[in-house]
Write a structure and sequence with these properties.
Structural class: alpha+beta
Helix content: 25-40%
Shape: globular
CATH architecture: Roll
Radius of gyration: 18 Å
Number of strands: 14
CATH topology: T-fold
Largest sheet: 8 strands, antiparallel
Strand content: 25-35%
Strand order of the largest sheet: 1-2-5-6-9-12-13-14
Length: 242
């Protein structure tokens, strides 16, 4: 079973290789992601995030889900010494770097809860996989038609932060300047909540970001800096491409 929809500004695809797909399981995935977009997008004036940013909602009155997202944002802000920050001066509250991985991970957990065993959920290039092995390509940062690595994932997640799609969109919260020391940073982790947040936070850290990400428990990295040099974890699960 395969299905693709445009949600949160990027394509989300679900592939399930089980013989039988539980009724409503995939509908629930897309319904949840549409709800997340409506509630947590900083680009929607009526979202919970926008209302909080404007001071129309008190911090102690936000939903449990938004409180969880903000706790994660604060955790990575502290862990990076402020390089990762969802509250950048002049830009307002933007928790998207955490929301994407967190929400897609929850969608994956809903598939598991419904009894789905073998699936791949791809959200704009960030992947949660189960029941593998699955082969996940890492795009070459200088050539969209090439891969610089292929990963072998059984049960886990892969996320990449890079400059090639959206330019210098990740800001180092310590300086207010665009983070440009890396071209791309790919993180393999047990969950997409971790992989996506660590990839973005590590990218924001700049030159030290790959080592920082690799030191996170359960995380492996593949990074390319602006000189084209590769930094790769010793336990990165590379697939046999022979």
């Amino acid at each position: 079973m395969r299905r693709v929809e445009q949600v949160m500004g990027f394509p989300v695809s679900v592939r399930i290789d089980d013989e039988r797909v539980p009724e409503g399981a995939v509908d629930a995935v897309f319904a949840w992601l549409r709800e997340v977009d409506a509630r947590f997008s900083p680009f929607r004036p009526g979202s919970e995030v926008s209302r909080l940013d404007r001071g129309e909602t008190a911090t102690d009155a936000i939903s449990a889900e938004l409180a969880e997202v903000l706790r994660l944002c604060e955790y990575y802000r502290v862990a990076t010494g402020g390089a990762f920050d969802a509250w950048l001066p002049g830009r307002g509250l933007d928790p998207c770097a955490v929301v994407k991985g967190w929400s897609v991970q929850r969608a994956a957990e809903s598939l598991r809860a419904a009894g789905v065993r073998r699936f791949c959920l791809n959200a704009g290039g960030d992947v949660v996989a189960a029941g593998g092995p699955w082969r996940v390509g890492v795009r070459h940062p200088g050539d969209a038609g090439r891969l610089c690595a292929v990963l072998r994932i059984a049960d886990g997640a892969v996320a990449t932060s890079a400059r090639y799609e959206r330019g210098d969109h990740i800001v180092d919260g310590r300086t207010g300047e665009a983070a440009d020391a890396l071209l791309s940073l790919t993180v393999v982790a047990p969950t997409l909540t971790e992989a996506d947040a660590v990839a973005t936070a590590g990218f924001a850290l700049g030159a030290e970001g790959a080592d920082w990400a690799a030191a996170r428990p359960g995380c492996e990295v593949f990074a390319v800096d602006r000189e084209g040099r590769v930094r790769r974890s010793s336990r990165l699960p590379l697939a046999d491409t022979g």
